[in-house]
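Folds abound. Consider this:
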Amino acid sequence: MPKFVKFFISWGITYFINIWFTYFFDKYLLFSEELSYFLSILIITLINFIISLRFTFNIKYNHIIFIKYIFFLSLFAILNYILVILIKNYLRIDFYITIFLVTTLIFLLKFIVYDRYVFNWRWSD
């Protein structure tokens, strides 16, 4: 199965988990939408790393990969969070539609960066 297909499957899984946790924190624990979304991003970080490492890119773990992953993931998480808040507040698009749009954009950027720089054996040593 091509890496992009595997990445898409893993994205679908983590997207569902992201929405579910955001909804759970927002509706059941009564956190703000922004805090709920931020917490859900933190939770899916570890899940996504494991899926990417073993399923999508099928590479063995080493500390350098993990450090690169956390570095790029942090950049993507910050970008993701800022874009969701800006679009929600300034364009007045529904919160969950905004999450979908931004997550889709970030998904494409992540695949390119992860494939070329993070989960690539040439850059792992």
Notes: The mean pLDDT is 88.
